[in-house]
Amino acid sequence: MPGECIFCKIVNREMPAEFLYEDEACVVFRDIHPAAPVHLLLVPKKHIRSVNDLKDEDKGIVSHLFLIARDMAKQSGVRDSGYKLLFNVEKGGGQVIFHLHLHLIGGWKKP
Description:
Layout: H1 6-11, E1 21-22, E2 26-30, E3 38-44, H2 59-75, E4 83-86, E5 102-106
Antiparallel strand pairs: 1-2, 2-3, 3-5, 4-5
């Protein structure tokens, strides 16, 4: 439910988060449980439960998230060293918060 969704509350500024980026369609902030030195969440402002709930009219949102991820990778200093972009889908796929979001993960040191 959007009313109970933690990401909806963050988007609506009902819960604190430092936005690294915001526009009319999405926000970007750091994951509070990072899996890497750089772990950002790109969250659309529109509540979409998961990838399985995307509709044809949401094509623009998904492509927008990828373009913002490209820019945030550069801003975070991981563009050239490499990074991962990841959608977790449903519980079996690791989705914990049921509001579509894209993980940008990187910043590991080379061995």
